[in-house]
Amino acid sequence: MTFQIAIDGPAGAGKSTMAKILSKKLKAIYLDTGAMYRACGLKAINSGIDSKDEKALNKMVSDINITISFENDQQQIFLDGKNVNGLIRTPEISVSASDVSANKAVRLKMVEMQREIAKVNNVVMDGRDIGTYVLPDANIKFFLVADINERAKRRYHEMKEKNMNPDMESIIKDMNYRDTNDSSRDFAPLKQAKDAILIDTTNLNINQVIKVMLEYINETQTI
Fold it and tell me: Quick one: pLDDT at residue 57?
């Protein structure tokens, strides 16, 4: 029998980092759902589509070609046959991904793919609506939060490590935009599931957060 762990929260709260570590410790697949929406955002930009044009996005997603593979425990995202892992982590793509993710047709398409993967694999899945919409019956759910200045600082260092030239003011602006956009959209907004465990990661390091999460997982005895 497979198990599912859902991790939700705003950008920079530590979802992806924790999900990757947990998946290795639990010998499960880590599914980065945000990368899927980023690929959609990239497709919209490459196609010259306004990321808020509902009709154009509906048409785009009807025949979009996104595939996922796992190589050495690393998720690889392919858009139209091309590996786009290295192209989808820019601020421009972040904004576009947030916009297109508000489109119902886009979300339905991505959620269908995510659920199919979760049916046949042990998964740790992170995003913004995993516990509330994608996997409402997940064995355990976490909702991570952190102060926006701390989140922005994390994103800044992450981008610096990738030899990018981030600007702190722009990062905070983009995060505020995404927070508002993600939590106010009509369909499957960002919010804490009623049965999710809230963890504020602002003053915790990675090992401390993982320790808390594993304690909750062990307590539930559902995995």
Answer: 97
The radius of gyration computed from the CA coordinates of the chain, to the nearest angstrom, equals 17
Q: How far is CA 2 from CA 19, 29, 138, 194, in A?
A: 17, 11, 10, 23
CA angle (95, 193, 3) in 5-degree steps: 95
Nearest to 97 by CA among 185, 9, 34, 18: 34
- Give residue 223's pLDDT band: very low, low, confident or very high (50, 70, 90): confident
Is the model's pLDDT at 177 over the cut of 90?
Answer: yes
Helix extents (H) in 26-145: 33-46, 54-62, 91-100, 104-120
Tokens 């290295």, located at residue: 86
Whole-number pLDDT of residue 215: 95
Question: What six digits make up the tokens of 1?
Answer: 């029998």
Q: Which residues contact 97 (CB under 8 A, 6 or more apart)?
A: 34, 37, 38, 40, 41, 88
Beta bridge partners of 70: 75
Distance from the Cα of residue 54 to its chain's centroid:
22
- Sheet of 82-83: strand order equals 66-71, 74-79, 82-83
Rounded Cα distance, 119 and 3, in Å? 9
Q: Are 201 and 209 in contact (CB under 8 A)?
A: yes
Q: For 153-168, what is each residue's pLDDT tens digit?
A: 999 998 899 888 999 9
**Predicted pLDDT at 176:** 94
